[in-house]
Amino acid sequence: MTKERAPQVDRAAVFAGDADGLERLWTPHRMAYIDGEAKPADRSERQCPFCAAANADDDEGHLVVARGKLAYVICNLFPYNSGHLLICPYRHVADYTDLTVPERDEVAELTQRAMVVVRSVMGPDGFNLGMNQGDVAGAGIAAHLHQHVVPRWSGDANFFPIIAQTKAMPQLLADTRRRLAEAWHIEKEYK
Questions:
Q1: Which residue, 15, 40, 54, 177, is the most exposed by fewest CB within 10 angstroms?
Q2: Domain ranges in the chain?
Q3: 3-state DSSP: the chain helix, strand, coil percent, rounded to 5?
Q4: Cβ atoms of residues 95 and 114 within 8 Å
């Protein structure tokens, strides 16, 4: 009986490319997202999940947290962390430069308010804020602009998503939505 050798694994440093001194965090599970799995077939308002959510009644159990005149706040259906919100204009526009000044201002105001409300309800240590403009930049729904508000806690990153293709979420989306929507209407003063 011959003894089998364990497969040899090359260190990243021996792969092709110039050494740049940076560590790499490989996330192959994100390829399904990048390849467009479960994205709308076209970029029209007809198939846009943000337009559908904006036009749904609040009692239908969707994830809208709060509504403004020109934009609204919704829980991300595929959150990075509990409390991950999206600020979306009602109007179906793709690019930040397509917003009118009043739309831009309300998106900014709702982003600021979202941070205050999430802080009061969930107590994060910080936030990631951002917009991915276009498919190449990582926008999941590139046809409808949306601002991410992602609460962060010290030590919230772990290797579950990489090793086990599993994300540990301590709270159900419906519960997160309910708690934030209730606080949104209670928290009047913010700055």
A1: 15
A2: 27-185
A3: 35, 15, 50
A4: no
**pLDDT tens profile 66-117:** 999 999 999 988 888 889 999 999 999 999 999 999 999 999 999 999 999 9
- The verdict on whether 92 is a catalytic residue reads no
Contact, 71 vs 85, CB < 8 A? no
CATH code of 27-185, in short, is 3.30.428.10
Of 60, 167, 69, 151, which is closest to residue 114 (Cα–Cα)? 151
Residues 130-164 pLDDT 10s: 998 988 887 878 899 999 999 998 877 654 454 44
Cα(13)–Cα(23) distance, integer angstroms: 10
- The rounded percent of the chain whose pLDDT value lies above 70 is 65
The H or E element that residue 89 is part of is: strand 85-89
Distances (CA, A) of 100 to 71, 91, 93: 12, 10, 10
For residue 136 the two structure tokens come to 């190449």
92 is in an annotated binding site: no
Is 148 annotated as contributing to ligand binding?
A: yes
Q: Which of 62, 84, 144, 146 is catalytic?
A: 146
Q: What is the DSSP letter of 7?
A: P
